[in-house]
Amino acid sequence: MAELDGLEDGETILTAGTPAPEFALNSTPDQKLSLKELRGRPVILAFYPADWSPVCGEELALFNELLPEFRKFGAELVGISVDGVWCALTDAAIAGS
Predict the structure, then answer these.
(1) CATH code assigned at 87
(2) Which residues form the catalytic set?
(3) Does residue 5 form part of some domain?
(4) Cα angle, residue 44 at apex, residues 40 and 47 outer, rounded to 5°
(5) For 37, which DSSP code?
(6) Is 76 left (phi over 0), alpha (psi -120 to 50) or beta?
(7) CA 74/CA 30 separation, integer angstroms
(8) pTM of the model
C-alpha cells in the first residue's frame, strides 16, 4: 500500500490488485450489498461524490458505456457515493426515463 501526502497517520490507499477490506452498504432502502458477496471475481469500485453533479453524471454514463467490456472479464461495477440510497434511486429513475 502507498502513502499519500494529505493522509492522516496510519491511513493508506490500496493499489490496484490489493484486496479491499470487507464492507456492506445499502443498495436499496431495504437491501445491502456486501463486498463478501463479490469475492472471487474482479470488482471495480467507482467512488463519486454526488448523484446530481453534472461531472459525476458524465463519469457514471461513461462507466455505463464500458459495462459490457467489464462484463467480458467477469467484473462487477459498484458505484459508491456519499449521497443516500433514496437520492441514488431517484437519479437512476430519472436517467432511465
Answers:
(1) 3.40.30.10
(2) 56
(3) no
(4) 140
(5) G
(6) beta
(7) 26
(8) 0.64
Residue 66 covered by a domain = yes
Of 16, 46, 41, 9, the closest CA to residue 1 belongs to 16
How does pLDDT run along the chain (97 residues), one tens digit per residue?
344 455 666 677 778 888 888 888 887 778 888 989 988 888 888 887 776 666 667 888 888 899 999 999 999 988 887 776 656 566 566 666 4
**Boundaries of domain holding 55:** 24-96
Q: Give the CA distances from residue 31 to residues 7, 44, 91, in Å, rounded to whole numbers and listed in that order.
A: 32, 20, 18
Q: For residue 21, what is its C-alpha cell?
A: 477490506
Amino acid at 25: L
Give the three cell numbers for residue 59: 463519469
